[in-house]
Specification:
This protein is an alpha/beta fold and 122 residues long. It is built from six helices and five strands. It has a single domain (3-116), classed as 3-Layer(aba) Sandwich (Rossmann fold).
């Protein structure tokens, strides 16, 4: 079963994503620090789904920390600020998979399947 680490400071988003990603092993973190701690304890992380704008650390900083130890880590960024991010750093933004918030669950599941394959039958 593929493992997904979800990091978002909005508990409602975490709960929604946790339910929407059935068929995957999903770990939920309420902030980047908790996400880093969880990732350090997991033998495998196939996908990081992260918010971009969080109080203690931005999504790109979190991605940098995790990719230092897991260079092949796949990432899906969820944000309500894609227009701003596209203007500030279009080259970086274009190379990372991302979806706007609020996320449509069918698009979320399709993006996850594109990145790491379909969920396992439970």
């Amino acid at each position: 079963m593929k493992t997904i680490l979800v990091v978002d400071d909005d508990s409602a988003v975490l709960e929604l994503l946790g339910r929407a990603l059935g068929g995957y092993r999903v770990w939920l973190a309420r902030d980047p620090d908790e996400g880093l701690q969880l990732a350090g304890n997991l033998a495998r992380v196939d996908l990081l789904i992260t918010d971009f704008m969080m109080p203690s650390m931005t999504g790109d900083e979190l991605i940098g920390w995790l990719r230092a130890k897991r260079p092949d880590l796949k990432v899906l960024i969820l944000t309500g600020h894609s227009d701003l991010l596209d203007k500030e750093n279009p080259a970086w933004w274009a190379q990372e998979a991302h979806l706007p918030k609020p996320v449509e669950l069918t698009r979320l599941r399709a993006a996850v399947a594109d990145l790491i394959g379909p969920p396992s039958a439970a």
